[in-house]
Design brief:
The chain has 168 residues and is mostly beta strands. The chain is built from no helices and twelve strands. The strands form three sheets. Strands 1, 3, 7, 8, 9, 10 and 12 form a seven-stranded antiparallel sheet that branches. A three-stranded antiparallel sheet has the order 4-6-11, with no helix packed on it. A hairpin with a 5-residue loop joins strand 8 and strand 9 (113-116).
């Protein structure tokens, strides 16, 4: 089983603060910013991977990416995975996890986040059984203000992963 992953970002303090962000840009007018690349992707097998992960948080539809936002400011968290060349056109799954305190949530295909028990056997895909393209994008957060929903003065960590289904 090939499972490539990278920690995407962390949110902290009274405002959202992102560290090591992976995001796919959205156009704002004719200008868009480049997504920051995350360092040191790794595989579950321990083998090196050429997969690359990008992410960012934006309050202006991708014209710029920032690492802090106001309590009530709606943001998007966008991601892009550049799939390892040998995995392109393979059938695979894409995964998104959010760790908040002691709890971990997984993004389901329905768009909802549900608790995950940390067992690989129970991990469900955000996008399942798809033909992996060279670049895969996932919107982790869409137009959401974290403060008003009670996510402030805390830390969130978001993880991205993909798995090709042809590997044992």
């Amino acid at each position: 089983m090939a499972l490539c992953f990278n920690k995407c970002f962390a949110l902290a303090n009274k405002m959202l603060f992102f560290v090591g962000v992976v995001i796919a840009p959205l156009a704002f007018g004719t200008t868009k910013a480049s997504l920051p690349e995350l360092d040191s992707p790794s595989s579950l097998t321990g083998k090196e991977t050429t997969a690359k992960f990008f992410a960012g948080a934006t309050a202006d539809n991708g014209a710029s990416y920032a690492n802090s936002f106001a309590y009530e400011q709606a943001i998007d968290v966008l991601t892009e995975i550049q799939i390892e060349t040998s995995h392109v056109n393979s059938v695979g799954n894409l995964y998104v996890l959010i760790a908040w305190g002691e709890e971990i949530f997984m993004l389901l295909e329905s768009g909802e986040y549900v608790p995950w028990d940390s067992a690989l056997e129970s991990l469900q895909a955000a996008r399942a059984n798809k033909i992996l393209q060279a670049k895969e994008t996932l919107t982790v957060v869409d137009d959401l203000a974290f403060g008003p929903i009670g996510v402030a003065d805390t830390t969130l960590a978001i993880y991205l992963a993909y798995k090709i289904l042809s590997d044992p």
